[in-house]
User: What shape does this take?
Amino acid sequence: MRSRIQRVLSSTATTLRIRRLAPQHAPWKSLAGTVHNNNPQRHLQQQPAWYSSSFMDEGNRSAIRKPKVLINDLESSMNKLLATEDPLSPEAWIESEELLSMLLQDKSIRSVVYSFQLLDRLLIDLPSPFGDWINTNLLNRMVGLWRVALWENDIPDYSVSQMLDRVLYYAQHHHLGNEKTLYLIVEAGVRSGKTTPEFAEHVLEKCIDLWQAGKDPFYPTPPLFNIVTRAWMLAQRPESVTRIEAIVQRMVELMIPLNRESYLNMIQALAALESTNAALRCEDILDRMTHAYHAGEITFSSLDGAFGGAFGMTITAWLKSGSSQAGRKAEELLKKMLDFHANHLHEKRDIIPAFNVAIQCQAITGTISGAKKAQEVFNMMRERFTPNYVSYLNLIQAWSIVGQATRVEAIVQQMRTLYENGNEDLRPDSVILTALISAHARSKSPNKVKDNREEAATRAYNLLQELKDAYKNGDESLKPNVVCYNAVMNGLARMKDPYRVSRLLREMFQDYEAGNESAKPDVRSFNILLKAWSLTSDPYKGERAEQILKRMIDLSETGKLDVAPNVISYTTLLTCYGSSNRPKKAEEVFNEMERLHAAGKIGAPTKQTLQLLKRAWLSSREKNKKIRAKAVDREIALRFGSDKEREQLSS
Assistant: This one.
């Protein structure tokens, strides 16, 4: 330690008298522990995980103690330094530097509190020839330490807003801090969810004010703007897109260059709006991003997959829009992406996800033509790239939705072959096999032959049994779930076999009670059973359906299952009575639906509900059936007709 002290004392700076500056009141001092507090542990509950062997030697410090001494003497050294009223000695300055170096290696709350209390104490004695190491870089390391601790903990007296007050005080009175310091504060709040987008924008404006006031270190860079736009994007508020656009416009006004994150945040925020207009705006921003690349404002070396991500998110915007143009737009964007410097795009990170979303755009149409388009997109991808699990899943779902079981079987077999050849990611799991089961359950024979439908339903049931056996033998990846059971039951319901549906529902409930939480029956499970009865010619199907409905109510009220009957349940019951020539009972069910809706227990009866009631009257043998059917028809017009139709009925 002698050599270090002698070097400092021999400098010309020490010819000046070391004087103690009067402390200035900091805005957080009323909340935080002061530097004179001789009990710095009063806010702390946990002990730090001190690193006894990872002490980093920064520069030539001949006077540094051994880490073991620092660990053992930490509390006493801190108490001594914080309690000192007189100007710190040279030895105390060097000991403080060593203590801060040690504290910055730990990520505990205790280290955060100690480090800032120690810094506050040291700032009282500045300027000092021994304090040249106190600079903005040190402050940023301390704020970085606080940021990591804040991700998982609330730190008394060191909230996001209090840290901002502290940093602004340091900037004003000690010329410490820069734009990165403020970025770390905002990033800590956004990542931990402990701040609002308004606060993030407030920090940005503070940074701009400091820069415009002549503090050049606070020049606002794109990352600070981007973390603020990200705060608004994550908030998912109605005004989020407007605020993001305003922040980007602010960048343009201040001549701050936009980078990849600036464009991506705008696209991602717009995609969340789920509208055709939002998807069109995403395309516009993508075009602006492309123009910026050609103008040399952004480069591929700095994009890190931005173009692939931008194309993928724009396709996602079309997927979420629900527009009939989604499939066509997805194809156009895919071709544009491949034409636009495809060699610079990373296959797994950029191209494959974009293709997967494009396949999904085609699948959601629920049509044969959509499934064929999905197959074309998949084939185009496979010609140049390697499809992943999601690629196969989306394609399988496209064919499954339209009941093309043969197609799905072939794709699943391709996955099995690739898996057996070493591709571990393509193992068909319960999700894939559920889609296969659904395809069989929906399978449609070209000639509507009953035997073919029965064969498909039996195949779906057998696949389910294979899943159950594999799960019982310990294969968690093949655990049957509620979707799987419902798909098989739906296939059996189409066979007009309520008894088999009922047995499978019991199996499902037993599977759930045995510990398979994924097999918990839901409302749809019971509605499928009701549907199965409605398709039969049993003259007592109305009573049987009513018993099922009462069972649903009982299970719901006792808390065993969340299967309270909904509008579909009651509408199916109405159908059971209506199709068995009992329109009066059907009307009783409708009146009960009206009562339950008024009580807030179910949704409003639909137009289909009233149309089924009308059909029940018309197909009955009741003498007044035409009068009742006309009354129902009038009710349909009043509830669901145009304004003109309602006016005519009122007059």
Remarks:
- The chain has 31 helices and no strands.
- Residues 1-156 form one domain.
- The radius of gyration is 35 Å.
